[in-house]
Structures are given as C-alpha cells and as structure tokens.
Design a protein that fits this description.
- Keywords: Mitochondrion, Ribonucleoprotein, Ribosomal protein.
- This is Large ribosomal subunit protein mL43.
- The protein has helices spanning about 45-50, 55-60, 95-110, 165-190; strands at about 10, 30-35, 65-70, 75-80, 85-90, 115-120.
- It has about 190 residues and is an alpha/beta fold.
- It folds into 2 domains: about 5-115, Glutaredoxin (3-Layer(aba) Sandwich); about 135-190.
- Helix 1 crosses helix 3 (about 95-110).
- The longest helix is centred in the last third of the chain and has 29 residues, at about 165-190.
Length: about 190
C-alpha cells in the first residue's frame, strides 16, 4: 500500500442505495455554465446556449441550469451532484458538439468521491475474486433467452420447490443410503 492515501481526506461514499429500483433518480442536481460574452474561447459555449440549452432544459426537468456570464474568463461547466460532490470542467475552445457530449456525460454518470480515500466498515485479508453476489448469480442461464410465458419453464418440474420438500427428499436419500450400508454389512458378515 502506498502512502498516497495520507494526503486524501477520508470519507464514506454517499450515494443513494438501490438507485433504479422502482425508478431511476438522476444524480446530477445542478449545472452552472460560466462563459464570457466576447471571448473567442467561449464561442462553443455561446453556440450551445443559443442552440441547444432550451432543448436540454426541456428534456431534463430534474436538472437546474444556471448561466453565469463573466468577463475575460474561460468557459467552465460546474456540475453539482446529489451527494454533494462538485465537478469542474474547463471548456476552453470547445465546440458546441463537444460541450453537448460533456454535459451528457456529466448527466449520466454517478459521481463518486474521487480524490477521497474511501473507508469501509469491514476489512478482509483475502478479498473475494468472485465479485458481488446478485439475485441472478445462481439462476439458470436459459432464463436470459426465454420468451415468457414459456410452457417448458411453467411445468411443475421447473417450479421452485419449498424447503420442506427439499428436506423430505434429503431425509429419504439418507434412509436409503443407511439401508444400503446395513445390507452391505450383513452380506460381509454372512460371507465370513
């Protein structure tokens, strides 16, 4: 482990859990577009504001857009996220298309606390190489390609059995194995 983590502020990840269960909540809260009205390096930002800003605001009602004209300064996009993180993007000499792509990227990404040493409430010396468990980890892969309703999958053989049925079946198998062991012991004793 390097000592680079000593210079980073410690903190915990503050993201909404289960984002997308029920509905997706966009993480971008506010966009501030800073630009100069006369500078040549802000031309792409001014073109974006004139041509595409109204459409962007209509298509994304959950994102607040502020315009901040500044004299003799380079164009900047400031993105603020729901977890309190702020990201700055210098847009010097960017074209209108580049600014559109960057704003779309800022809108779709979920900003984690980069520049922060992430602390966990647990530690292990042997981390898992299998990855996190999901509800689909041990499911049959043919369910991915099935068109529902499917006659083959709706037969009783493929329905989930209860735990009680599983235990009864295990008990029967154990009894059969015990009987076979007893019969084998009797045969060995009879031959001696």
């Amino acid at each position: 482990m390097s000592n680079s983590h000593l210079f980073l502020k410690p903190g915990f990840i503050k993201v909404p859990l289960q984002n997308g269960v029920g509905r997706y909540v966009g993480q971008l809260q506010r966009v501030v577009l800073k630009f100069c009205k006369s500078s040549g390096s802000s031309r792409g930002m001014r073109e974006f504001i004139e041509a595409d800003l109204v459409d962007f605001a209509k298509n994304n009602p959950g994102i607040v857009v502020y315009l901040k004209p500044r004299r003799h300064r380079t164009a900047i996009i400031k993105a603020e996220y729901l977890n309190g993180d702020i990201q700055w993007l210098n847009c010097r000499n960017f074209t209108k298309d580049e600014i559109t792509k960057w704003i779309d990227l800022l809108k779709t990404q979920q900003k984690n606390s980069t520049g922060m040493r992430i602390r966990k409430l647990w530690h292990t010396d042997n981390p898992s190489i299998q990855g996190p468990w999901t509800p689909f980890t041990f499911k049959d892969p043919k369910l991915n390609l099935a068109k529902f309703p499917d006659e083959e999958l709706s037969t009783p053989d493929h329905l989930n059995r209860t735990s009680q049925d599983e235990l009864v079946e295990l008990f029967k198998q154990q009894k059969l194995e015990e009987l076979e062991k007893c019969e084998n012991v009797e045969r060995i004793n009879a031959t001696n």
